[in-house]
Amino acid sequence: MIHGLVLGKFYPPHKGHLHLIKEAKKKCDLLTVLICSLEREIIPGELRFEWMKGLIPDPNIKLVWVKDENPQYPEDHPNFWEIWKQTISSHSKLPIDFVFTSELYGDPLASVLGCQHIPIDLKRKQIPISASKIRENPIQYWEYIPEPIRSYFVKRIVLTGSESVGKTTLTKKLANHFETNWIPEFARQYLEEKPTPMDESDFLPIAKGHLLSEIEAAKNSNGILFLDTDLLTTKVYLERYYRSDIPWLTERALGLQYDASLFLDIDIPWEKDKLRDLGDEREEMKNRFLQAMAEAKRDFFMIKGNFLEREKLAIDYVNQIKKWPIHPISFTKEQIALRKIQ
After folding, report:
1. Do residues 252 and 147 touch, judged by C-beta distance below 8 A?
2. What is the DSSP string of 278-339?
3. Domains held by the chain: number
4. Does residue 209 sit within a domain?
5. Which pLDDT score, from 0 to 100, does residue 277 have?
6. What confidence tier does 161 reach under pLDDT thresholds 50, 70, 90?
7. Are residues 88 and 206 in the same domain?
């Protein structure tokens, strides 16, 4: 039986990694893939290991999570190669016939392991990507992120503020401009379809429906997802109308984090409709929202002016956000747990 080895950080996994593994498997009967991680890295090794299990379902490819805190470069330790030889031997008991890499370290590693190195796309001509490029600017290299894990890299941008400040109008325009998804305010759809007036019992299904909409829309968004309000808005209105608290909602309203928030000011005319009744409380509601943002420790970018000015301000700001690196908090267990509907 021919046994091959691929090792890497997969930090994060990208289509170049998948190409390497696919080509390596063609040349051996069993392929061992070591997913190596360090505690200090932004994307936890456990999460990368879970991703890889979903991306590589082949039973003849053995995935192993390596937690050893090894030196990363030969100059980091005089026994660098021996340390890595010991790690590889302890995680892969079978003799290794071939080591497959797209890296320059392939030859010296093969020499240490006593096997042959087979380079695959060493110059990255077939798939010109690296994990560091994705970490630094995921949206620029969106096409190289495997589809099943893209939702973790989506820039989530919330438009927030009191009623009748143009959130829905601006959210639609931004989604259209940046050719991506947006999710409407779930409460409006819910209440428009409800045959009876709103009451306190509506707030939990509204909150869960809005969060589920976010989760689903993120799966096929084009790098950015625009949200017409979020659960913090639901919390504000629950307090305003009923002076009440729902623990499930409060935990997520205050705990969920987003890449950015656009706070829309009240400097445009208030327009009445059947779901708006706080036109004489605009200043008070604006202050309620500002207090909620502070309570949730959310930074925000203030959007003012007429509709054209607001659109320009928002587009300019989102163009800056598109260049931001990965958001460390997106990969934490806490945020992942908060985005589960329980």
Report:
1. no
2. -GGGHHHHHHHHHHHHHHTT---EEE-SSHHHHHHHHHHHHHHHTT----GGGGSHHHHHHT
3. 2
4. yes
5. 60
6. very high
7. no
Residue 100 sits in the same domain as residue 58: yes
Phi-psi sector, 24: left (phi>0), alpha (psi -120 to 50), beta:
alpha
Amino acid letter at 336? Answer: I
* 126 and 217 fall within a common domain: no
SS3 category, 65:
strand
**96 in Cβ contact with 90 (< 8 Å):** no
Among 261, 274, 340, 268, smallest CA distance to 301 is for: 261
Residues in the chain: 342
Supply the pTM of this predicted model.
Answer: 0.93
Query: Parallel, antiparallel, or unpaired: how do β-strands 224-228 and 155-160 relate?
Result: parallel
Give residue 73's domain range: 3-136
Asked whether residue 132 falls in the same domain as residue 197, the answer is: no
Please indicate, yes or no, whether residues 268 and 178 belong to a single structural domain of this protein.
yes
| H/E stretch holding 225 | strand 224-228
Q: Which residue has the tokens 């021919």?
A: 2
User: What pLDDT digit, counting tens, does each position of 237-287 carry?
Assistant: 999 999 999 999 999 999 999 999 999 999 987 777 655 666 577 899 999
For residue 323, being part of any structural domain is answered with yes
> Is the torsion defined by CA of 20, 93, 72, 331 positive or negative?
positive
Q: Give the DSSP per-residue string, 104-165.
A: TTHHHHHHHHTSEEEESSTT--SS---HHHHHH-TTTTGGGS-GGGGGGG-EEEEEE-SSSS
> Which one of 86, 104, 136 terminates a domain?
136
Among 285, 222, 233, which Cα is nearest to 262's?
Answer: 233
